[in-house]
Design brief:
The complex is a heterodimer of chains A (179) and B (235). By secondary structure, chain A is mainly α. Chain A contains seven helices and no strands. Helix content of chain B is 36%, strand content 24%. The chains are: A mainly alpha (179), B alpha+beta (235).
Chain lengths: 179, 235
């Protein structure tokens, strides 16, 4: 069974390589959502442990590896955020600056390259929506805001918020033009 | 007034709501159930997740502290998980081959690992893996074959125990199924394969599971369609 041991080492090394190539991106995302380094570090650790368990579920026909990892990181950070009792629903959390206050390294060039095309298109399409709908999409993505919370924040009935968002989301998809 | 959404639009919007995390309480639980039970819906949710992931592109990368990896490594399980990991890495390799720049870089690194070098074609495979999946996402059997000992290790999840027993078949490309025997509906199994069987473990051959009447000896042929199947990959 010596081969098993060797492969096991190899697997671990492979996860490490994945970590080396993606951890700055995922840490950035977790930091942006969690707001503090200690929590972001905890979440990032849990993310790679989850990746270790879930890598078999990765489906290349649906997403690139980086997108898949970023989604796991975002969802884990949002889960963390929701589990923190008494989370403030603050308009201040809508602003963009949080992560920027923390010293950052330049993103890898290859990540930037991928990001810039997709990003430009997504921004363009979100900007074709009502300003409020776009802000709500961002608040849901980065702050884990639910319909109920968004409705309270915008001071509109729940049904109105749902109706705005559902139509906005379908319009967004149409604009992105990916089916 | 806006026209009401069509049922298709309604379902797609639900997928978006779940992906973005807008739902809570019962609505969220219901959508999660649908995601687990309906592959089409699960694909819609995944497509929305990929769309929204573009938002994360805005976020600057920040190098985590060096100790962070040590914390992860310390919590990784040891050798016991080897079976499923093999599959994972192959998934990574395949995935990376079909994707963007970073993916390609990952693929390059993974493919050039010295221990991942392909074996000469004439030689019997040392190591082979397969992931045998059913229609239900929960049914996953991971197989790992060690050619040096002719042993196939299986890790079985998500089969429902019943009157019929799961039976494992190897199907050579273009050939008839050959039974490797019956397996338990869950847990791990270790099959020692004789020389004839070993010769069937080849790249492109399929491992499949059917449900068969309980029998101490392997059946000559399957009596029904497979409930799960997957290709063998030589590594």
């Amino acid at each position: 069974m010596a081969a098993l041991g060797a492969v096991s080492e190899g697997d671990r090394d492979a996860l490490r390589l994945v970590y080396q190539m993606t951890s700055a991106k995922l840490f950035g995302i977790c930091l942006r959502i969690c707001g503090d380094r200690t929590s972001a570090e905890d979440v990032v650790q849990s993310v790679y442990l989850r990746v270790w368990d879930k890598a078999g579920q990765f489906d290349a026909t649906r997403a690139s590896p980086v997108t898949w990892l970023a989604t796991i990181a975002r969802n884990a950070a949002i889960d963390w955020k929701r589990s923190v009792a008494g989370r403030p629903i603050a308009a201040a959390s809508l602003d963009e600056g949080k992560a920027d206050q923390v010293a950052d390294d330049a993103p890898r060039a290859d990540v930037l390259l991928l990001a810039s095309e997709r990003n430009a298109r997504l921004h363009h399409c979100i900007n074709t929506l009502e300003v409020r709908t776009g802000a709500c999409i961002r608040a849901a993505f980065f702050d884990g805001m639910t319909y109920a919370e968004l409705a309270a924040l915008e001071d509109v009935p729940l049904g109105t918020m749902k109706s705005w968002m559902r139509r906005g989301l379908l319009k967004l998809k149409e604009c992105l033009g990916d089916g | 007034m806006d026209e009401p959404l069509t049922p298709e639009q309604d379902r797609d919007a639900l997928a978006a709501e779940l992906a973005l995390g807008l739902l809570d309480g019962d609505a969220r639980a219901e959508a999660q159930r649908l995601r687990l039970s309906d592959r089409g819906f699960a694909a819609q949710v995944a497509a929305w997740e990929a769309r929204f992931a573009g938002l994360a592109d805005d976020v600057a990368a920040v190098t985590p502290p060096k100790e962070l990896w040590d914390g992860i490594a310390a919590r990784l399980p040891a050798v016991e998980r080897v079976v499923s990991l093999e599959t994972r890495l192959n998934r990574w390799r395949m995935a990376a081959l079909g994707s963007g720049a970073l993916a390609a870089a990952l693929a390059l690194v993974l493919l050039t690992r010295p221990d991942a070098a392909p074996l000469p074609a004439a030689q019997a495979p040392e190591l082979a893996v397969a992931r045998i999946e059913g229609d239900s996402a929960a049914t996953v059997v991971r197989a790992r074959y060690d050619g040096s000992e002719g042993v196939m290790l299986l890790r079985i999840e998500g089969l429902t125990p019943g009157e019929l027993a799961p039976e494992l078949w190897v199907i050579p490309a273009g050939g008839a199924p050959v039974s490797l025997g019956q397996i338990a509906p869950s847990g791990t199994a270790r099959l020692t394969m004789d020389a004839d069987m070993r010769a069937l473990v080849k790249d492109g051959a399929t491992l499949a599971i059917t449900l068969e009447p309980v029998s101490p000896v392997p059946h000559a042929a399957p009596s029904s369609a497979p409930i799960a199947a997957g290709k063998i990959t030589i590594i």
